[in-house]
Amino acid sequence: MVMNSFALILKEAKHAALLMELPTRIVTDDGYRHRGTELPVVDLSALNNHTSKTIFRAKKKWWEGEKQPSFWTGESFYRKWGGEPQYFDYCD
Q: Which of 30, 39, 62, 67 could serve as 35's disulfide partner, Cβ 3.0–4.6 Å?
């Protein structure tokens, strides 16, 4: 199972950041929306997602050899998105 979660950094400090979860848009799928590729929604409609349930704190982590930090919420791991559609698969 491969599940993606996209977030926007609202505020960043030395050891943590405030993130807002972004909605996703399926680009390609298998006809049943079980497998395919998806992108985050990064237009003005994403601001509708700005609620207390979608904003959260994440710890900042610098990995050796990485130029950008990663973020860990205790449940989800976030890193810089490369701009390409990301593969998802909801089947076990």
A: 30
How far apart are the C-alpha atoms of 71 and 75, rounded to whole Å? Answer: 11
Q: Per-residue confidence at 78, pLDDT binned at 50, 70, 90? A: very high
* CA distance linking residue 75 with residue 39, whole number of Å: 21
Give how many domains the chain has, as a whole number: 1
**Does 1 fall in a domain?**
no
Does some domain include residue 47? yes
Q: Which domain holds residue 19?
A: 6-89
In one letter, which amino acid is 14?
Answer: K
Tens digit of each residue's pLDDT (9 = 90 or more) over 35-62: 999 999 999 999 888 999 999 999 999 9
Sign of the torsion formed by the C-alpha atoms of 2, 7, 12 and 17: negative
The answer to whether position 20 is within a domain reads yes
